[in-house]
Please model this.
Amino acid sequence: AEVEETLKRIQAHKGVIATIVMNAEGIPIRTTLDNSSTVQYAGLLHQLTMRARSTVRDIDPHNDLTFLRIRSKKHEIMIAPDKDYLLIVIQNPCE
Amino acid sequence: MLGPRKAQTRPAPRRRGRVHGGAKGAPVSPGRRGPLCFSDKGGAGAAAALTAGEEPQAVQGAGGPRRRGGRPSPAGRGEGPGHGEAAAARCGASGAGSLLRRRPRGTARPARRARPIAGAVLGSQSPRGVLGRVAAVTEPRAAAAAGPVQRPGPGARGDRRLRHRGQGTPGLPPLSRTGHRRHVFQAFILEQAAPHLCPSCSRLRKPPRRLRKCITSGSIALNPSSPLHHSGQLRGQWAVACLASRVRRGSQASFSSQRRVSSSGSISTRRAAGSRSPSTASTGKAAAEGWAGGNQDAVRVFDDEGKDVTPHPLFHSDPNRAAPRQGELWSLSARFAARETGFVAPFPTQQTPGVKASWSSFPRTNGSSSTSVSNTSTAEAALDDPLGPGSRQDTTVGVSGKEHELDVQVKRGEIKEELTREDLDRRVDLYLTETETLWLFYMPVAVVSVESEEAGRVLEQNRIYVDICRNRAGNDRIADKMMQTINEATKNKEVQCDKIIMEDKGTVVTSWDLYDSFSASEIEPATKAEGSRAPPGKSSTSHPTEEHNQTRSLSSDRGSPSRRTISGSPVLARMPEEEECHSAAILTSENFQQHLFCMERILMENIFQPKLAAYRQFPILTDPDVTPDTSGTVGLVTEVKQEEHDKKKKDKAEQKEAFIDPSILSDLNKTPEETVPPRLEWLWSYKCDLTAGHRVSSMTWSKVNPDLLAVGYSAFDFKAQKEGLACCWSLKNPKWPERVFRCEHGVTALDFSAASPNLLAVGMYNGAVTIYNVASCNTAALLDSSQSSNKHTGPVWQLRWVEHNRGITGDGKKERLICISADGRITEWLIQKRLDCTDLIQIKRTESKKIKLPGGEKRKSEALISQQAAGMCFDFHPKNTNIYLAGTEEGHIHKCSCSCTEQFLETYRGHKGLVYKVAWNPFSTDMFLSCSADWSIMLWHQNSQTPVLTFSSTTAFVEDIMWFPKSAFTFAAVNESRAELWDLSVSISSPVISCSAKPHVKFTAVLFAMNTNCLLVGDSRGGVSVFELQNLAAPNSNEADILYDIMGVAVAP
Model:
């Protein structure tokens, strides 16, 4: 319940374009985007996150990736990776 | 077994003579030899059987003499002509005179060279049975040819052969193929016959297949498993089988051999002697046989399977053959021939007399009387010697003659071809019948009793053999020779099986993969150990717990992600639901919450970044990529600014009007005028859906974390009480509180502890005091005053943790929770197992006193009646924590001491209404400020019973005041309509900044930020607005003095 509220809140925040939750396999569990975009985001970001985590862990196996922010001209993509899922929020900070 | 083996493996030909000479050669000993001899019976019998019906002549001519017993040995010579007839089967007709013609062309050398082999081969006649038979079969023609008429087939063939070889006449078609084969065979045989064959090697374990067939089809039993199959003897036998069966020039060979015998008498003699057999005779016979066999070319022999097993000639004369070899070969052949004891060969008596003589000189007895035979042969050889040249001549003549004769024959055959072909077309029935078993080799057991007669001899033999073996290394007689054996036939077999599916799998292992797996393997044992430790405890526990454990373990069987949630959720997911459950698990996991929390903060940071920077008084950086769309805010701000400006102007106008001390004021006013006027800039509001509709009753900062704000919410209207809230806001998320404590009643006051920064004390409208732990997410109250017997009965209007530096009891620093309540008491709460309180002062009494005091003597009765005057606020002296002020409902402010619980130290009367707040000036500690519902703010000096200054800007309740923590002149006040910032150094008549609230919104609380120039204003709609104070005058160093001056000025008049 609290999670739902939080998700709603996040989605309601200014500039938030999309919220995607996907499991460890990169399969979207929850999304506020349309299907195709979700699939695209999920596939690409999952790979990217895995790569990023791999990078972090390769440098130091004790370390781990906790957050990934991608700032672009249009958007900021924020990824909270976990062992079991990925939380992705796409925000347009200009709004 | 040793003895015999030795004997067998001896290098045959050369040794032979010696052995014989020594009379020790086991192989030639009669006893041995006996079994080795081919029993001629079979062959002869077969021949007889075959020929019996068809070929009387053959029987007479060839077969007849063959018979062992029945042959008159000495008569050989005499029978010469008869034999000649028989032998004439092939070359026999040699009588023809054209021999001479042949001669010059005749390849004497080749012939001679070939002879030894042929002789050898012939001598060993093992397959003679077959040959004999075949010969017998073909005999009729031979017989027929005995006269002038020759059999066309054999003769022609043989002749062709000869021609082909000797003259290079184009080969006749039918033979060209087999001819080649013959070559091969010949080579093979020669190889075999080499005298220096290593006898112990396994060069030739089996005769060529064809040969074998030949043998077997001829019903000659060859024991294939014979241990001596590789012995020279047997080999010789095979060789004989081959050659005898198909050498066309057998006669020639025989001739040459014969001639040899005659010419080199000594050798042949020796040989003959050694073998003790009528070598020449047998040779001759074999030759005849061979010759007869040669006829087979016309007749083909088929075995049961219909394969052609017709023997082929093995031998070709090879002109290039090395001469030295001849002797060896010859000797070998001699030996082979010698082997052939007891075999009576028909003599090819068709040869020249000389030859005949030499041949016939041998006795045709069975080989049994070896000595005699050898003697005879010796004698014969000796006899022949003188005749050497002649005989040789004769022989050659004979040969050539024969060849010529063959030629003639061929011609004749050609002439007669048509006729004979017809004959050939005729069906010829061949009956191959099995003959008696023919023993080719027999070796008796070689174990001899020590006591037997032979013992000595055998021992001697063994010794010799040992010697030989010992001397083997340097012995000339023993030579090592490499020999290639026939390859085992390979066999291809196809097997079908299921298709083997190949699969490639690859994986990439990163260093952290390795690390994880290693750490996992390290962790696992530990958990296992724990698990093993657990059972005892489990067993001791009651049943239900075990079940619980089981369910837990069951849930833990699932993937780690689901495990977490399942253990949390009471419902166990079923398999089909796993997917959903999985996602649900993710969505409900703590990690997810945490991440959402972070995510939200990050979003907030993105959104509020400029404002947060402003709050922190950092320079605001704008993202070049982002076009800040802050027009709304800017607009608002500008609006506010303009308002401020307007108000300021108004204030200034008022200021001028309300003339108090123009000189000072003008002095003070100069500074702000020179600079940009200070203003409040709205940054954000701590507001959320939860708090909407509530009234902000109090705000406080965390003592440790200056970014953490606790806000108490109560019902907007005190008359319609509803649930209250206590929220902790973090600067990082202005849109949602970090902690939400829901209270049954409206929150009227709250404060953070300084000693235990995680403790938040909350006072409520019903008088309850609750302490929450904000460090934990658990929103349940840590402590509650509900069990306290002394709990407040009225709303707790103010509540504060106070550090007592100079405790009365001298315990040093001690933090106390002080509350003031509408029930007229100021209480100190003790944080123990349960919350309890002691009264700092009897509010009721003070009330009564207070009534007495103001009333004096006049209203005693009234004082008795009205005991409910409530305390509204209090403030402890910043330096002397024993002293505190208490504001009351009726507008009086009492100065009290903790050590005096009975009476007030001082009472300040000035307010006409509720005293909402009293506040000591943090710098000038003699001064304090009070605000009241009578729309006024009063500045007091503690030594003065009357207010030093009274500030009144609006006609609204002044809900809250607070001194600016950085300046002694500045304080903020909120009334219902607006928030004001007063700077006494600027103006004592009007606020420097004022900010009006939106319509229908009343400001209820004010708070300065601890570490920045920000002002927080709570309103009646549940929002806490954050304003940035811009362009505030820098605080002076001697503010306190200035304040005194101001006050002095104010007071003086």
Q: What stands out?
A: Chain A has one domain: 1-91. Residues 1-91 of chain A form a domain with the Beta-Lactamase fold (CATH 3.30.450.30).
